[in-house]
C-alpha cells in the first residue's frame, strides 16, 4: 500500500496528489458554504437597510472576491506539488493577473459607485450622471493603467524604462493633441465648477439653447430653432456665458413717450397709473416709474419692474398684460402716445408766417 502511495506521477507521489486534491475539495466546499449561507443571509439583511453601499459590497464579494477564492484554491493546492520551474512561473503569473484584474475591477467599481452615490442626492441627478460618465471613464482608464504597471513590477520586470517611455510618449501626445487635451481639462472645469448643467438654457455670444449633453471634448446644445449646436468645451469655458436656468428674478426696463400736448396734471398722474397697473399683476415686483426726460418729439417715461420667476413664458405673458392695460387706461384718460413727428415753420417773403405740421 505504501509503495503505491509513493508511486511517482508527474514528479509527485500519489500521496502528494491526494493531499492537494483533498485540500482543493475542502476549500471548494468552504467557499460554497460561504456563498450559499453567509452571502445569502447578507443579501436578505441588506434589503432591510436604506443605504445602497451594503448591496454594492455584497455584490462585489460575490462577483469578484469569490472567484478569487476559487482561483486561489487552485493556486494553493498546486503549490503543494513539485512542479517544473516554468510551470510554477506560469501559475504564478496567471494567479497574479487574475488577482490584479479583480482588484482593479473592485477599485474602479467602487469609484463609480462613490461618484453616482454623491450625485444621486443632488437635484437633476439623472442628467448629472450622464455628465459624470466621462469622468468615470477617464479615472477608470487611469486606474487600469496604474494597476497594469503595478502588475508588471510585481512580475519582476523593471518598470522604470516603461514609465520613462510613457512620460516621453505622453509629452509627444500632449504636443500633438493640445486642442483635445484642452477640451479634456475644460471638461473637468465644467464638471467640478459647474457653470452650467444638462437642462440649463444658456446664451453664448449670439447662440443660445438648452444643454443636452456634456462630453469629454464637446458639449451639445438644442437651439430654439431645433437644430443641435456642437461646441468645444474650451470655447464654452473661455466665453462669457449667460445661464438663464439659474435666473431667480428678471429685471425688466422699458420706456414710453407721450405727446408734448399732454397736460401737467396728466404728466403727474402717469407714474401713479403705471405703478398701479404693475402692482396688480401676480409674480411682479414694482421698482420705479419716472418722467425721465424731454425727447425730440415726446415726453419720456422710464419704468422698471421685476418678474419673480425664471419662466420666460410667464415673463412674456405678464409684459403683454401690462402693455395692454397701459394702452387701455391711457385711452380712458385721453393720454396720447407720441410717435415721430416734425413741425416746419415756413416764413414767406411778405413777413407773414405759415405754420404747418408734417408727420
3D structure, described in words:
The chain has helices spanning 2-5, 14-46, 53-79, 85-120, 125-154, 160-176, 178-193, 233-238, 264-279, 312-333; strands at residues 8-9, 12-13, 201-204, 207-214, 218-223, 228-232, 241-243, 250-258, 284-294, 299-307, 342-346, 354-358. By secondary structure, the protein is an alpha+beta fold. It has three domains: 2-169, no CATH class; 179-246, Roll (SH3 type barrels); 250-333, Alpha-Beta Plaits, CATH 3.30.70. A five-stranded antiparallel β-sheet has the order 6-5-4-3-7. Strands 8-10-9 form a three-stranded antiparallel β-sheet. Strands 1-2 form a two-stranded antiparallel ribbon. Strand 5 (218-223) and strand 6 form a beta hairpin. Helix 3 packs antiparallel against helix 4 and helix 4 runs antiparallel to helix 5. The N and C termini lie far apart (129 Å).
Low-confidence stretches are: 353-359
String of helices and strands: HEEHHHHHHEEEEHEEHEEHEE
Shape: elongated
How many beta-strand runs? 12
Number of helices: 10
Return the structural class: alpha+beta
The main pleated sheet reads as: 5 strands, antiparallel
Gap from first CA to last CA: 129 Å
Mean pLDDT metric: 80
Helix content: 55-70%
The proportion of residues in beta strands is 15-25%
In order across it, which strands form the biggest sheet?
Answer: 6-5-4-3-7
Taking all Cα atoms into account, the compactness measure Rg is 39 Å
Structurally, how many domains make up the residues?
3
Short description:
It is built from ten helices and twelve strands. By secondary structure, it is an alpha+beta fold. Strand 1 and strand 2 form a beta hairpin.
Amino acid at each position: 500500500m505504501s509503495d503505491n502511495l509513493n508511486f511517482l506521477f508527474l514528479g509527485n507521489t500519489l500521496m502528494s496528489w491526494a493531499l492537494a486534491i483533498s485540500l482543493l475539495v475542502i476549500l471548494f466546499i468552504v467557499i460554497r458554504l460561504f456563498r450559499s449561507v453567509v452571502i445569502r443571509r447578507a443579501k436578505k439583511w441588506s434589503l432591510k437597510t436604506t443605504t445602497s453601499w451594503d448591496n454594492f459590497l455584497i455584490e462585489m464579494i460575490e462577483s469578484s472576491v469569490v472567484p478569487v477564492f476559487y482561483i486561489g484554491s487552485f493556486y494553493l493546492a498546486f503549490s503543494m506539488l513539485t512542479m517544473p520551474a516554468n510551470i510554477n512561473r506560469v501559475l504564478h503569473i496567471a494567479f497574479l493577473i487574475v488577482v490584479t484584474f479583480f482588484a482593479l475591477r473592485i477599485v474602479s467599481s467602487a469609484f463609480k459607485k462613490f461618484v453616482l452615490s454623491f450625485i444621486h442626492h443632488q437635484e437633476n441627478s439623472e442628467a448629472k450622471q450622464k455628465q459624470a460618465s466621462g469622468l468615470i471613464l477617464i479615472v477608470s482608464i487611469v486606474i487600469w493603467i496604474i494597476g497594469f504597471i503595478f502588475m508588471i513590477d510585481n512580475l519582476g520586470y523593471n518598470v522604470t524604462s516603461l514609465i520613462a517611455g510613457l512620460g516621453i510618449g505622453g509629452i509627444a501626445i500632449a504636443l500633438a493633441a493640445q486642442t483635445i487635451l484642452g477640451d479634456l481639462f475644460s471638461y473637468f472645469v465644467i464638471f467640478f465648477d459647474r457653470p452650467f448643467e444638462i437642462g440649463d438654457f444658456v446664451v453664448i455670444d449670439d447662440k443660445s439653447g438648452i444643454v443636452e449633453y456634456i462630453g469629454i471634448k464637446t458639449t451639445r446644445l438644442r437651439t430654439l430653432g431645433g437644430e443641435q449646436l456642437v461646441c468645444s468645451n474650451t470655447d464654452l469655458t473661455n466665453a462669457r456665458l449667460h445661464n438663464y436656468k439659474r435666473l431667480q428674478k428678471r429685471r425688466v426696463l422699458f420706456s414710453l413717450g407721450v405727446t408734448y400736448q399732454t397736460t401737467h396734471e396728466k404728466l403727474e398722474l402717469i407714474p401713479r397709473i403705471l405703478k398701479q397697473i404693475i402692482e396688480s399683476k401676480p409674480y411682479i415686483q414694482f421698482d420705479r416709474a419716472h418722467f425721465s426726460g424731454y425727447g425730440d418729439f415726446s415726453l419720456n417715461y422710464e419704468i422698471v419692474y421685476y418678474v419673480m420667476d425664471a419662466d420666460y413664458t410667464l415673463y412674456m405673458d405678464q409684459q403683454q398684460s401690462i402693455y395692454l392695460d397701459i394702452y387701455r387706461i391711457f385711452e380712458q384718460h385721453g393720454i396720447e402716445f407720441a410717435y415721430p413727428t416734425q413741425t416746419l415753420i415756413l416764413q414767406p417773403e411778405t413777413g407773414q408766417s405759415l405754420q404747418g405740421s408734417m408727420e
